[in-house]
Please model this.
Amino acid sequence: MLILYGIVVGFLAGFFGVGGGMVLVPILLYSGYVIKEAISISIVQMFFSSIFGSIISFKHFKLKLKYALTVGLGGFVGAINSALVVSYLDETVLQYLFVVVVLVSIFIVVFKKQKYETNKEKNLLWLFVVSMFIGLFFISLGIGGAILLTPFLMLYLNIDLKLSSSYGLFFVMFSSTAGLISQYLYLDFLSLDGVVIGLSSLVGVYVGVTIKKSLDIKKFGNYIIFLYIFVLIAMIFKLNMG
Model:
């Protein structure tokens, strides 16, 4: 079952350019893991799938290395302190904040006209700061944060949805690496199951990135919106149940 989980979540990570934790964590909770174990496993899985996905995406899409490294390093700096943030902030507060940001993200994806990257250079500091805050607050929920970064990149870099989601994998790669370190230093760490799922996810990542490359941008946008709505409903349901 862990191998199956890995393949499915890997496909989602490669296709949508996300960490996959938003799907994996609920599955693991349903399978009997406690929340800390599920988050730890999710972060390990994100580490494997995002590295492989970033390599494939860089090959398939015309990504600028300076933008990819900036969002990645911002995510790393934020996520390295994520476990410490959890000890001070109530998880419910983070979840409500997440719901608000997802609503804004849906609005951006629906109404932002699809454009391709221009030659105008962007301020890398803004990319770094936004990536840092996303990594700081949301890696602690076992969520890579790329689902929140993607709409921002669409607006700020003036790029289409495929490109922005591909940059998201670089963010997840760095933030999940920092999350691993943070989990190891501050929290319980369950590595073996995460490694099994992470290695299995590589198959799904390859398929997901390959399919995304061949899809029409409008169809891909519809799939992204469906993902956002699914995550939004799942989070609202979790809050009501809590």
